[in-house]
Structure formats: structure tokens, C-alpha cells
Specification:
- The protein is of the alpha+beta class and 851 residues long.
- The strands form six sheets. Strands 3-6-5-4-7-2-1-10-13-12 form a ten-stranded mixed beta sheet, with no helix packed on it. Strands 15, 16, 17, 18, 19 and 20 form a six-stranded mixed beta sheet that branches.
- The N and C termini lie far apart (81 Å).
- The protein is built from 26 helices and 29 strands.
- Helix 16 (655-669) crosses helix 17, helix 18 runs antiparallel to helix 19 and helix 25 runs antiparallel to helix 26 (817-850).
- Helix content is 42%, strand content 22%.
- Strand 1 (16-28) and strand 2 (33-44) form a beta hairpin.
- The relative contact order is 0.06.
Amino acid sequence: MAHPTDDRNFRLPTSIRPTRYDAHVALDLSARTFEGRETIELVLDVPAREIVLHAVELEVRNVTLERGGESVSGKVRVALASETVVVELEREVPKGPAALRLEWSGKFSPGLRGLYKGGKVAVTQFEAADCRRLFPSFDEPAFKARWAVTLDVPAEATALGNQRVAHEERKGDRRIVRFAETEVLSSYLVAIAVGELASCEEESAAGIPVRTWAVPEKVHLTKFGQDVALNVLPRLQDYFGIPYAFTKVDQVAIPDFEAGAMENAGLITYREVALLVDPKTASLPVQKRVAEVVTHELAHQWFGNWVTMVWWDDLWLNEAFATWMAYKIVDQWRPGWRIWLNFDAGKASALVLDALWSTHPIRGEVHNAAEATESFDAITYEKGGAVLRMIESYLGEETFCDGIRAYMKRHARANAVADDLWRALAEASKEPVVELANAWIRQSGYPLVTVSRTGNTVTLSQRRFFSQPGVRSDETWPVPVILRFRDDAGVHAHRVLFRGTTQKVDLPAAGAIRWVCGNGGATGFYRVAYDDAGLRALAEDLASLEPAERIALLSDRWALVRSGEASIESLLELVFRFGGERDYAVLDELVGRLATIDYRLVSDADLPAFRAVVRSLLQPLLDEVGWDAKADEPGDVRQRRAAIVRAIAVVGRDEGAARELRARIDRVLAGQKDALEAHLHDSAVVAAARAGDAALFDTLLKAFQTEPDPAFKRRYLSGLTAFEAPDLVQRAIDLAFTDTVPLQDFASFVSGLLANPAARAPFWRTLQQRWGAVTEKTSSAPTIFRRVVESIGNLRERAELDEAKKHLAAHPSHIAKQATAQTLERLEQDVGLRERTMPAVTRWLQKGSAD
């Protein structure tokens, strides 16, 4: 008869629970092996004849269970399907407290999970379920326990853990490091880092010691990330109303890292590019990204680490909350950054994904840990965060905060489910939060809200929005709608909870209404469609709309073009209403739309004409701001210049602008980093590489290999994918399959080549031919593999779509089922959009030239 552990969906019984781990691990960094021994203190709720715990590729031995002064030996049986070992005891043990003692050995993981070697550092990455690759453990989030970890490491190596060092001693060329016992933790939050590391000086925030670490040659880049932590920790503590629980904060930049960062309790690990930055040479977007990531991980120390999900089906709540909270706290710290506009840019990616048939609910069924990792996408993070923001906007900030604090106190040091949070918010607000929240997190998709007006009465209607033309659904949501409108007295906001298919709203206007915006502040997670009169009224008074509302107006119109509910001509006419736009965030949206149209919708024959139109639209703005920034120039102006230069040099392919950028980037590569304003670096590298020669390719490659600053390093690697000379395209293709491209950057390198019109066809052929090398390279990094699959969405033509379908059908992957379905659906729509709209773009360009 099959044992329950033979099922890959097996979950540990809750009748046996760990309360404390005492683990000792000796690491051989050269051989990349380890040996360990541990005692797990347990509580048996029922008599037990066997004990099941997780272990992957570990040789577990010498297992005994101690209970009531007696020692019972056990045999170990490995259950590969469920990644567990079954300890079969020689006799039944009565219920009560017990201690499981065992020894084991294993090897470092070859990829980027479990315990692996990232450059000069051995580090762990355990989320979702890879603690079992280093420690035999009860590796599910509901099993919280204290951890006392001791490491035996080379004497010269730095050793970091979740807690401070309690004791250490030298033994020859080895060092024994014992860390203080942790608070109760789920196993995925346990972490160690051992190797060549150096930190900035320790500082304190609200009594919490903080250090930021990197490999020694990059320690000079730690100050900004350190300053972020010092500034946001007290703000997080104030918001939650609960002191920080994990005694210290160590932030560690890892040279090769699969995710952006990981919120291990008290020992947060990061990709170097997400933590290390030189504010003297970094653009504001780079600084904002580092601040957002650091704050996201610190927010997890409360929401996720102190109160933890029961199972991975509520992973979304951890990530969505930390996403939303990071922007909220950074906005408090740096209000001039207007970082909520960056949040809206992330939300836009979720709106695209969630308009597909192949989307998924924010909260879905998760049967095993492997399925949990597929949930790390824009629906989990950005849609989840947007729904929380929408609910907060409806309830009010103070009420929402009161509910969060009540939830945190009620479930401190324990596990909770999403409904526990909704109930706390409902109690604080006296509003139907459970109904509102569950409608959004358990149901896929989102509504298209149609807005029309007669006098002072607005008629709202809704249905589910799909980006596939002709697809309809009558699903509805309770939608917290904010209607912003302009009347004779100014601009006002009116809130309504829109239920059902249609609803009339009488606006409390003073005099005639000029226009109505159906998503005030753009805080709602929905699209808006206006009738012709409503759209025209908004387009004629764009300056009165908030930047986020102008962005949403463009984004929603583009979505309606994709779905076949608006013409491409109507979008292009709207775009040209933005010719005088000076807000950098709106310009970023505008330029992004123009870039997509250039790549997707314009025939090769029409590209020169379209690019000339782009240049004519935005050249006056470049003439206004110029190429060089003044010493005291505000960040908003610098970012405006960056968007304009991207439009003219990268989208419009202006030869004069490209020459200007090439001259400046040459000086940067020669060591004069201030030769180019920081915000122009990305455009400069792309524009220079497109027309670049072998000498520039060699220079960028060397710069990538030697540059310590991860933002520059990443930029140079990406630049290698932008060359258009056939011989250099081939060099980049060959480079993709070498160790020169780190595993963490492999998917972005693949995506860059597929998005390069000159490289797309030859690289796509190579990618199909060498798919075995792709799967081998990414076998222990499932997130990277999924990103590779998603990069196939950069293909453009019908023939390429057909090849992609055939290729992915011939090479199915259980770790990328969702990514495969979404990529093919989006690509099918993109190809159809190209075929449907190209003739219309041609007519529009011809009409413009005739006029």
C-alpha cells in the first residue's frame, strides 16, 4: 500500500510539532559540502510510531527519539515525491514532549537555492521550501519554532545568522560560531551567510543595530542602503505599533541571487543591484528602487515574519502587503520622490497580466511548494498591493492602520489567514471588508468601468475586461470608485461603492460639470472607458488632471485598442495631446507607448516616418531642458530629460542624439563618470551599442566584468544585447550560453536579445536549438527559467508565434505551466494586434504627411 508521503502534494501532519531546533553545521567551502547534527524538540499530540520531516538530497543517519528518559532508535526511509524522510521508530512513543536527534551530510546546491556559493559567499535561500536542502526540518510555514544555530567555518570567514553571535572560539584553522537563539520562525526565514564579507560601520535606528554588508571591494557602496534602513525602520515600527522583534538587522548583498531580495529574519539578503548604490552617480530611479526593495524586506519583518501565513495559498498577502507598505513608508520618508507613481507603473503590469484568460486569482489553491513559486508574479505583488491600496483609500488611512495594528497584536508570533486580516479591518471600519476583499482576491480579472454623463448624473456600468477582442463576461465586483470632476468651483472627489452591472450617481456639483475622471487618483484596480464626449473633455483639460490620472488615461486607451474597443487612430490622436507634457512620469508612460507602437505596430517601411513623428513631438522639450543638468537642478527635471532623450535617441533613433550620447558614454567608459548625467546612462548605452563596432563591444564587455557598481554593471551587460551589426549579434548570442552571463542575469540577457530586431530571428533559432542548455543552466533556478519562457513574448510575427507554440508544446515544463500559458496568450494577442492595426497606422502616417 502506498504511503501518504509518496504523494507530491503531501503535507506534514499537525499532530507532531517542532518547538525548538538546536543545529550544528560544519561547512567545507572548498569542497562545497556540509555535515550537521541537530536536536529538534517536539510536541506529540498523539502517540507516534513514525515521524515525517522534510529533507532533500541529505543523507540522514543516527536518528533517535528521546521521550521520558528513554531513547528509541529509528530507521530512515526517503520519500522523494514529497521531499521528506520518514523516521520509522522501533516502537510506538506516547504523546507529550520529545526530542528527535539526528545527523546528516550533504552538498551545496548547484543553483541559487538551498545552500549555495554565490561568488565569494556561501549563502542560503530557503523560500519557498528549500530549508530542507540544508536542515532536516518541518519545512512548512505553519511550523514555527525557535532556532539555535552553530556553524563550524573557516577561521578567516565572516559568519552571519538570524541572530547576533552569542559565542565563538578558534580551533586551528576553523572557527566555531554559536548564534543566539531566535524568536519563533518558520523554516523558510532561517538563514546563514559565510564568506568574504565586509560591512559599513554599525549604526542604530530606534535602538536596533543595523549593518549593511558586501564583498570587500564593494563595501563603499553600502551607505545608501544603510541609510534607507535607518530611516524607514522607525517609521515601520510606528505604523505597526509593535517593536521590532529580531534584535538586529544585517543586510547582505550577494553576488549571484535568484530573487530581488529575501526577508530572512534579521538577516536580509539581496541581489547586489537591489542594495548597493553610489548616490553620487546613481539616477533617482535606481535610488528609488533600492529604497523600495529595502523597505519591502523590512516591512516583512512584521508582516510575514512576526505574523506568518499558515500555507502558501496566502503567500500573496505577505508580498502584497510588503509591496504596498514599502511605497507608503518611502513616500513618508521622501515625499518629493512621488514614489506612488512608480507603484502605478508596477500596477500597470498586473493590469496587463490580469486581462488574460490564463490569469489567476490573487489567492489560489496551492497544493505543494513547487506551485507556490509560480505565484511570485505581478498578480501576487502588484495586483495584491493595488487592492490593498484601493481598500485603504475606501476605508481611510487611520481606520486601515487601526485594523492592521489589531491584526498584528491578535496574531503575534503565530500564523494567520487572509480572512483574519479582513475581519480586523471590518471591526475597525464597520464596513463590509470581508465581502469587498474576497471579491477581489478570490476572483480573477478586474472590471472595465464605463463612464457617461448627462448633466450632473453619471452612469456607471461594469463588466470583466479581457484584452482578447470579442471576449465578454458579465462578472462584476464591488468597486470602490472615486469620481473626480471639475465644476465652476474647482476640482472635487466623490466616493461610491459600485455594485452590480449599472449604477447612477448624482454628483454634488456647483454649476456646470466640465469633465469626470472615473478613477480619481488612479488608485482603483480597473480600466475606465469614456464615451466620446467624456474623453474629449478630459483631453482638452489634461493639465487639470493629476499625473497618475493622465497616465491612466493613456494606459486605459491603449488597453481598449488591444481589446478592439478603440481604434489605434484614437490613441495616436490622444498621444499628440501630450506634446507639451512636462511631468516625467507621464512622459515615461507616453514614451513607453510610443516604443511599443514602434516595435509592434509599425511596418518596416513606415518606421522612418513614424520615428520622425516621435522626434518632432518631443524635440521642443529637449531644446527646452538641454543636454546638461545644472548643479542644483531638481530631480524631476533630470528625469524629464531622461524620458525625452529616450524618446528621441532610442525610439526616434535621431542620429545627432545618438552621436552626442556615444561621445559622452565613451568618456564614461574611459573613467569619467560625470561626463554623462546619471539619468541618461541607459539610453546612452543602447543608442551607442546599436551603431557600435567591435571595439565598443569589447569595451562594454570588459566594463561589465570589472565594474564594481552593480547598476553600471547591469547596464553594460544589457548593452551587449543591443548591438545590430550581424557579427556582434552573433557574439552576443554565443556569450549568452557561457558563464560570463551570471545565472541571475540570464533571463534578462535572453529577453534583451529577443527584443532586439536585429538579433531576434538568429537568436530565436539558436534558443530553440539549444533549449537543452537553457534548461540545464536554469534547472536549479525555476524563477529564472520562467522568466526565460516569458521572454519569448518578445517575438513579433505570426510565423514566430507558430514556432513558439510548437516549441513549448514539445518541451513542456511543470514549473512553468502558468508562464507558458500566459506568454503564448499574450503573444497571440500581440501578433493579432499587429496584423489588425498596421494598415491603420500606415493610413494615419500618410494622412499626417499630407496635412
